[in-house]
Specification:
Helices cover 50% and strands 11% of the residues. A 3-stranded antiparallel β-sheet has the order 1-3-2.
Length: 240
Amino acid sequence: LLGAEAEVAASASASSLTVSSVATGEFLPPEALKEMKANLIKFLPFKYLAKELTSQAEILKKVLRDNQEHFPVVFSQASHCLELVCGVEVKEVDPREHIYIMVPNLGLTCDVMLSSGQSMPKAGLLVLILSLIMQNGDRAPEEKVWGALSRLGVCVGSVHCVFGEPRTLLTHVWVQEGYLEYRQVPYSYPARYEFLWGPRAYAETSKREVMAFLLRIKERASRAFPPLSAEAAREEDEAA
């Protein structure tokens, strides 16, 4: 989900498809709804990086082409995707005028350094890495980290459309910013390396907050997809 949604967020062009206004009840093709969602996923991070509020009126005018009846579902799905991929939460600050602000999840400020809106926020990936470290006894072997990222379409040596080259991001950028530690496993030969939480990660968030975030995402996913049948669940368990 992370890799797929990130690809959509980065590759969609706000002008690539013009969706005309649709009367209430008129059928709108799934491709058009998907395009509106992708356009909104692209629009919201730029508002976040510019530290600007947005509103339902602005979104309808600039992104959804006045398709007001589709706003609730498109806005909800795009907000959830933005939280998962970018680590940014969309909050309504004025229910009467429907004005929204975007804030970093878990207090992480790693995206503050991004300038001029030239890059998508990446805090969502950082939360994933921090959780992987927690799940591996507070020190995650780098091969496990690269393996987990590759299953999400974020591969070492390949430039990802949102996250760039992951080795550079994890072992240089986030290490220099203090979010991660990347060090050699003591007495390992040939040398093996592992990731740990950095001091800035401990200062800005906590393990309890990261776990609560992951549980919230898991709960949303379980609501979004129908439960497996007993037979399918049994096959999945056997495969695992």
